[in-house]
Amino acid sequence: MRVHRWCSAAVLAGLALVVAACGDDGPSRTDVLGDYANDVALPRYQRLAATADDLVAAVGEACAAPSDETVRAGLDAVGEARSSWLSTAAMPTGPIMERRSEAVIDWPVRVADIERLISGSAPGDITANVIANNVGADTRGLSALDLVLSTDDVVDRLGDQRWCDYVTATTEVVAAEAHLLLDDWTVSFAEGAPFVDVLAEDAGNTWVGMIVNDSINVVHMLTEAPDDAPDGAANVASDRATQLDGLGEIVTAIGPLLGDELAGRLAGEVDAAQAAFTDGDVDGGRALTGEVEATLATEVASRLGVTIGFSDADGDSAG
Fold this sequence. Notes:
Blueprint: H1 8-14, H2 29-64, H3 68-89, H4 95-99, H5 102-105, H6 111-119, H7 128-133, H8 142-149, H9 154-157, H10 161-186, H11 195-200, H12 206-223, H13 236-258, H14 260-278, H15 282-304
């Protein structure tokens, strides 16, 4: 999934219109954002870092002793990390957007580029630095790992040091990025306070508007038709259901600002779309996700006084 960057100038200019819409009743926006940051988003980022660490360990064992069992464990670890990433990437506001982490952690794969990298390398050539800085986004990440570890001859491949160099370096790059994201949330974001504190102290309500805009952007991606059979294409329906799981947590978190009727209706729309994708109905899920997008862009934006921004990254590629 590509998470597109919203035009900061347009959004921030519009966010001057954000005012308290719920009167004196109920929690303040600052309280709601504080709860979202600490109780919803942060645990997602902590889990992402933990599953990435587990992935490094599992792939290391598969390379140390290639077998059907160790490869299966490696694939399971890839699945756990990718599921964690997809639900976390549905909450991209802040560090993920700034770092463009999707181009490091998970991007559509180009098999020919991976094979070209392996064939042109000697044992020891492919390091984490090479994967992080010298190859394109379509040559690394969780989908690339899933593809390599799913091949019929994977046990034999891992007997070739170059393939082990590749999968090991790729896991290290994914884990490093996951920890950098967590550091942004807990240590310092953009050379300032930890992002968990930035959100919790959002007295000007700037980030409420960003969260709504980013959620619309994420949802819009889920309404689009899948790409034509990219290399190593994942289960589109399952992936989109997982992304909606993360979005559902955002809806629950900001619910107190929306009022019971709107919050309940929006949550129901998200649940319906997620159920369709879970059942494998991609077209139905896309249509139902369109209803979520419409509600966010109209009623939620209006209720919160949020101006909808425009993407400045349409057609972006990563490298």
